[in-house]
Amino acid sequence: MVKVGSLFTQVLSLISRKQFDLAVRQHGAERGAKGFSCWSQFVAMMFCQMAGANSLREICGGLATAMGKLVHLGLKAAPARATLSYANEHRSYRVFEAMFYHLLEQAQSQAALKRRKFRFKNPLVSLDSSTIDLCLTMFDWAKFRRAKGAVKLHLQLDHQGYLPSWALVTDGKTADVKVAQMLRFSPGTIVAMDRGYVDYELFGRWCDEGVFFVTRAKSNMAYRVVTRRSVPEHGPVLMDEEIELTGVKANEACPCRLRRIVVWDEENQREIVLLTNHLEFAAGTIGRIYKDRWQIELFFKAIKQTLKIKTFVGTSENAVQIQIWTALICMLVLKLLQLRSSFGWSISNLAAMVRMNLLTYRELWRWLNDPFDTPMAETVFEQLTLF
To answer: H/E/C letters for each residue in the chain?
Structure first.
């Protein structure tokens, strides 16, 4: 019989310990540490996410009840609540951020083996953000409104595998456009985003750099129709126009020719007006690209419903950053397991089943492909003792 560790042990084996130790040294995270290592902290916070722990007490208590299995996780003992709390407050979250990008490379390699949804070969990404509400009394550093605190998670989703390929955590007041201006894309990349990212100066720069965008047009956009293109009679595309912006500032910022496409949203029974600088794709393809942007909304829904980023086990800014980056790492792990499995998991079902079997001894990849297969138990024959 093949001996295997718990599912949790096998999941953690996806994280390179060598790369983790390198990140710890680069950021000096264990400087002055006595006994409680960064790896132990990482395991505890991964347990928080994957087991659904709501507090430091549940994290430390849950690990303490599995004392016989901790050695396989690289832990000598379950941490004390005060020890874990101090580490989350004082050790840099940059270690967790570095491990997210290292694991991303593995996930992208796996996603590259899957069939693409669209025929075109241009990289397709979506941009969006999600606000995470915080109690201003406890998180006094996260001022958002007069009586409300918040942080904002900005995300770039790669549609090849629907993987989060870039993330940034800011205060709740940071505008989406300001974050988008920080990003650089390779020529040919298509960026899908909602109306909150409309900025003609940004669009002008992307036109110069060969980057394409697909977004919703603002209702007060001033423009002049240059050419009207023909559209299919019975399709969802109602109008396809090549336009030029006529607003003085808008035209100076973005003098290039754009397309205004009106499509019919059958599900919500409304018209959607799209704006793009891609002049070659069919209007129906542009509409499908924008529709696929909904995947980033589903990603935010999944991470909030299946992992712990709405309630926090620490109140400092560093502790919040650590918990969010750990949640993103867990999402990459779940996506990696989903991509490698032949079962057809949804992220929510996979997260729930991993949570229920986290400390059971099953061969991970066999379990992923056939989760309801009963493993062969090792039979032990013992002589009955009669009284």
So the answer is: CCCCCEHHHHHHCCCCHHHHHHHHHHHCCCCCCCCCCHHHHHHHHHHHHHHCCCCHHHHHHHHHCCHHHCHHHCCCCCCCHHHHHHHHHHCCCHHHHHHHHHHHHHHHHHHCCCCCCCCCCCCEEEEEEEEEEECCCCCCCCEEECCEEEEEEEEEEECCCCEEEEEEEEECCCCHHHHHCCCCCCCCCEEEECHHHCCHHHHHHHHHHCCEEEEECCCCCCEEEEEECCCCCCCCEEEEEEEEECCHHHHHHCCCCEEEEEEEECCCCEEEEEEECCCCCCHHHHHHHHHHCHHHHHHHHHHHHHCCCCCCCCCCHHHHHHHHHHHHHHHHHHHHHHHHCCCCCCHHHHHHHHHHCCCCECCHHHHHHCCCCCCCCCCCCCCCCCC
